[in-house]
Predict the 3D structure of the following.
Amino acid sequence: MKKQLVLGAVMGLLSLLPAKAQHSLSERYAQRLTLPKNYVCYRTAEKMTIDGKLDEQAWQKALPTASFVDISGDGFATPKYDTQAKMLWDDRYLYVAAVLKEEDIKARLTQRDTIIYHDNDFEVFLDPDGDGLNYFEIENNARGVIFDLMLDKTYRCGGNFMIQWDCPGLLLKVHHDGTLNNAKDRDRSWSVEMAIPHQALTMNFSNPLKAGQTWRVNFSRVQWLKAKGPEENWVWSATGKVDMHMPERWGFVYFSDKQVGNGADTFTYPYDMAAYRLLWAMFYAQQDVYAKERNYIRSKERFFFTEAELNALPKGTTIDVEATKRTFVMSVTVPNRQVRYVLNNDGRFTVEQIAPRVVKNWVWTRIDRNKSDQAYREWFGLLKACGISAVLFEGYNENLYKLCHEAGLEAHYWKWTMNRRELLDVHPDWFAVNRKGESTHDKPAYVDYYRFLCPNREGVADYLAKDYVKEANLPYVDGVHLDYVRFPDVVLPVSLWKNYGIEQTSEHPEYDYCYCEVCRAKFKAQTGRDAMAMKFPMEDQSWINFRLDAITHVVDQITKAVKADGKAISAAVFPGPSMAKKMVRQDWGNWHLDAYFPMIYNGFYYEGPEWIGRSVKESVQTVQGGAKIYAGLMFPDIKKDFEKALDEAYDNRASGVSFFDGPTPEYLRKLKAYLDKRGFSVQ
Ligand SMILES: [Zn+2]
């Protein structure tokens, strides 16, 4: 009430003292950012006689609150006299009781709604819906004289008090363990007992008390230890400032459906408290800035959050600030709880539900003919239970695809694209030729299975398109998945160099494709030049583009045919696409598939998990929402940084991940726990 206005002025002067500018928000407002108290309020079935005496069994069973402390909180003196409160509820009333230790019980005021804290008093503050607006205050002195009022907003936000509000149906009595207004004897305590009807608290609030609700409540005891003051303010949940009108600092009271003494509920704060406290620290900063500059902070950067402040927030949390000269709305969005906390310049705090982020996760797998149906069933069941939605099978087996479907998973046919040894005898002329004139037909690069086709040969694209349409139409196939959509590696990942005893810091002719007569003739027709005669073919952009486009044309033809059949099409691609272009002449940023699975196998490139994030970021930027990006993760490479690798993929907006060579059941369960922790919904 009025005293807060006077004290507010004092606080105003203090804030003009030179601020330690370097201090972070959480340091500056530390006193106001401690965890508010909490209490579980149980039901009573007993008829409560409101006489100020707490002799009902229900009161005896109810646990007291923590003893009251100085309103300013940590570091301030322990109150001279102990005070504790208790709460109960039933279908009609919220009951509040308090015992105030006292050596000299006294009360002067006798009229309702006089300024009761001019006497020693007990005060109850109630904000049922916790929005910081339209809250109630009931005070009484040791005579049981009541001062009750309602506020539309807090004083700091220009609120108005309505003393004309008289809590309808309020029952309140006091009891003295000692004598009233007799300074000559030594008293022990006085107690308050009140019953507040649910219906009395429904103004601007259409949600009377129900089990499962959490209200914001605080208690205060004003005590005049010296006749002329200053008065003491002893409270249940310290606000951290001599101001009770800070509903965000009041205690949390959870209403249990259990009868008092009949089991216990564990209290859980209804908000993410790290996000909640940061939002309020921002509010305090806004108020301080406004007091000095008559203007609000307009961007989150201007709050100068520290690493520690941001790291204290749950993963994926975002902060938004919108402000004008006179108003602001700030929010903290916490995806793992699927909520957004919103706070405005009126001190109105609300919680908005947000849709969960939907992700889809995959595994690549080879078909194991020795594995039983039962073993497959169990594995599919585990995948499904742990947040995997789809399996990419290398090859086809109708029964296996069927089992996969039965477990609720999608089954995709993963098949190599340009690498096609089945054509060795049928079309020996279709195979790609390197700069030394050697064909993958006779002399494949690196390994025997590197039998790549030339994308420019007549019939190649047509053959591949028809082949994928055929696979796409097999029973239980949800889509086709392309792989080896490229030339042989002109540059291998660095970790493989030692395997082949080569140093690929430049492009070697034996790994540089395709220089077959068809490619050379086509390129010559376009540019008038012979690729074989170039001195530095690796630096010739039109020759590089010619080959990138040749692969893209093949992919376009396959894509058109598969999509015309209404089937999904995706591909495993090299990271990037910047690296893909350089290493294997794969320009997948210009393709039109439904999804890309960049194989971000960090171990191949001697990179840590951060590189996964950088690579996913580039991929997501490349497709610009036109396709999904699933981060291809080599399980053995990420095992020791499993969560970090997942963070890197998801935080850079991958639509999901796909595992190669794993994960083991243990890590599948870790994946499940991770997805739950992040609050992701699995597609
Ligand atoms: Zn060729």
